[in-house]
Amino acid sequence: MGFKRLAPRILNHPGFRGRATGIPRSKIFITIRRRFGDCSGCDTMEYQMIAPEHSEQVLEHLRRNFFADEPLNKAAGLCQNGSSCPALEAHCAEAIQHRMSVMAVDAKEKGACKIVGVVLNGILKPGDTAKALSKLDCNDDADFRKIFDLLHRHNLKHNLFEHFDVDCMFDVRILSVDSCYRGQGIANELVKRSVAVARKNGFRLLKADATGIFSQKIFRSHGFEVFSEQPYIKYTDEDGKVILPVEAPHIKLQQLYKAICAGDQDEKKQSL
Ligand code: ACO
């Protein structure tokens, strides 16, 4: 029996214990969907490359789903859900220009498409991070500075370019899924497709700064390995005060990488 027929039977069964334990029905629904390997959004879900003309729609998705929800943004109190953050928007818009990013679009109704997930990828060259860090001093958004100071300094201290003989990297910068569509495997699919884009464009190394426990799990499940970590409680100011009080279960930043070997065929057939 398929998920769509089975889920209501379980949820409505008089002996179902979830009612007594007070577990939200949405959580149970997602668990059943995962258990039975089905995905209700999949029927109408399309994955497309992001072009610069999609920028405004992508930013609107991020304002509603990434800007306030991502663990570091949340800890810094970067912005309210739905509101704009010029510094982060500039960072996202720059990545879109590299034409390596992918979006998940729900095409439920003809002509009415909704962006429900994005992965923004860019090309990273030696020297880019040091340049970004020096530019950070001129940024007047103190919360943005707290976040990117951590990321840039960590990347410079644990320098992937010094360990791998590459002159550029495929940088997975932003991973975001609409809060109403989470738990359906969309982030997994976006990362899988990013690896395919990197491979198609001849990259030998991918990197990602994963800030939360779930994104870390997703990257690892696609063959990314941990290069370095930074516990959030150790990111402190001169008085020893934690700069970003990130909420559990997210406890550390992970810099992950994935090396692509010429003979490695696993994602080669993935098309966009
Ligand atoms: N609780 C438990 N497990 C979870 C959760 C959760 N809330 N979210 C994801 N997972 C796990 C799932 O168990 C799943 O594992 P499985 O394949 O073994 O079943 C795996 O993560 C992938 O789940 P998806 O359904 O593909 O993830 P989803 O589409 O829900 O998106 C994401 C996950 C991107 C983290 C989403 O929650 C989000 O947008 N969060 C806010 C922004 C954010 O934190 N982005 C990542 C920052 S790092 C970066 O951008 C590079």
TrEMBL record:
UniProt entry tagged with the keyword Thylakoid = no
Q: Which domain of life does the UniProt lineage start with?
A: Eukaryota
Top EC category: transferase
UniProt GO molecular function: aralkylamine N-acetyltransferase activity
Entry EC no(s): 2.3.1.87
Q: Give the record's keywords alphabetically.
A: Acyltransferase, Transferase
Coiled-coil segments: none
Catalysed reaction equations from the record: serotonin + (5Z,8Z,11Z,14Z)-eicosatetraenoyl-CoA = N-[(5Z,8Z,11Z,14Z)-eicosatetraenoyl]-serotonin + CoA + H(+); serotonin + octadecanoyl-CoA = N-octadecanoyl-serotonin + CoA + H(+); serotonin + acetyl-CoA = N-acetylserotonin + CoA + H(+); dopamine + acetyl-CoA = N-acetyldopamine + CoA + H(+)
Pathway given for this chain reads: Aromatic compound metabolism; melatonin biosynthesis; melatonin from serotonin: step 1/2
Q: Which family does it belong to?
A: Belongs to the acetyltransferase family. AANAT subfamily.
UniProt-recorded name of the protein: aralkylamine N-acetyltransferase
Per the UniProt record, the source organism is Drosophila mauritiana
What is the name of the gene encoding this protein? LOC117147512
